[in-house]
Amino acid sequence: MAETTEKTFAEQMVEKLQAILLGKADNDVLEYEIGGRQLKKYSFDELERMRSKYRNEVAAEKRTTRQVVRIRF
């Protein structure tokens, strides 16, 4: 039976932000307007700060979820 582990929100965010940052290398328009509707995207620096924040959360989660179980026979 294969073991499945659910990813935490922070882990998912790191993956999503990484994908966005990789995509920005090809298509980096910060804002635009079409038909009177305006769209503004996060800057590269803002995305990097968010990724760093979530990476720190993932590291903290991993530190707190490590548990040692000792059994005596």
Biggest β-sheet strands, sense, barrel: 2 strands, antiparallel
Mean of the pLDDT scores?
Answer: 86
> Which class best fits the helix and strand makeup?
mainly alpha
Gross morphology is: rod-shaped
Helix content: 40-55%
If you compute it from the alpha carbons, what radius of gyration comes out, rounded to the nearest whole angstrom? 19 Å
Number of strands: 2
Task: Give an overview in words.
- With 73 residues, the protein is mostly helical.
- Helix content is 52%, strand content 11%.
- The chain has two helices and two strands, in the order αββα.
- Strands 1-2 form a two-stranded antiparallel ribbon.
- Helix 1 (9-24) runs antiparallel to helix 2 (44-65).
- The radius of gyration is 19 Å and the shape is rod-shaped.
- It starts with 8 loop residues before the first helix and ends in an 8-residue tail after the last helix.
Key phrases:
73 residues, mainly alpha
Summarize the structure.
With 73 residues, the protein is mainly alpha-helical. Helices cover 52% and strands 11% of the residues. A two-stranded antiparallel sheet has the order 1-2.
Please render the helix and strand layout as text.
Blueprint: H1 9-24, E1 31-34, E2 37-40, H2 44-65
